[in-house]
Amino acid sequence: MxxxxxxxxxxxxxxxGLILVTLLLFLVEYLTAPPAAPTSLQRTDISLSRFRHTxxxxxRILWTLSADRADYDRQAGMVEMTGVxxxxxxxxxxxxxxxxxxxxxxVNAKDVRLTEKVEVTHPLYLLESEAxxxxxxxxxxxxxxxxxxxxxxxxxEADAASYELPSGVLRLxxxxxxxxxxxxxxx
Length: 187
Known about the structure:
Blueprint: H1 3-32, E1 46-57, E2 60-73, E3 78-89, E4 95-106, E5 111-121, E6 125-135, E7 140-143, E8 147-151, E9 154-158, E10 160-164, E11 169-173, E12 177-180
Antiparallel strand pairs: 1-2, 2-3, 3-4, 4-5, 5-6, 6-7, 6-8, 7-10, 8-9, 9-12, 10-11
């Protein structure tokens, strides 16, 4: 066997090995990749990562919305999101920040629905729920399911809750249970 032939065989075996390793790595990556998340949209026209949107009215910011991922269905006017954070600004400039794993926004009506481990942070308390709805026509945040509200001096649980952005009033409805803590007196 000539040296040229040995080099040629070595090169061919090396190239074949490289192709097999690449194919094996591709198969491992393909088989271990998580499946695509199920969507409630009929179709997706645009998919974005690190999505951000600001809703304004009469030069006043109503809310800012950001998401890790957003899928937009132009025909339905809906945006389905994951890793959602919405900051609502009340008329007295009190910020309420809502975080959740999933969300759905109606682009035309400017309504938002947050689901899966929703947390709303107010300067005075934390509201936890599994669902939160924002109706832009009434500017009300509503949790139609069991809700927990925790502050420095109280803990409350209710069947449902709502927060009116214009007035800043939090309402707990249904069966409400809670504990109020009195401030400690100083010696």
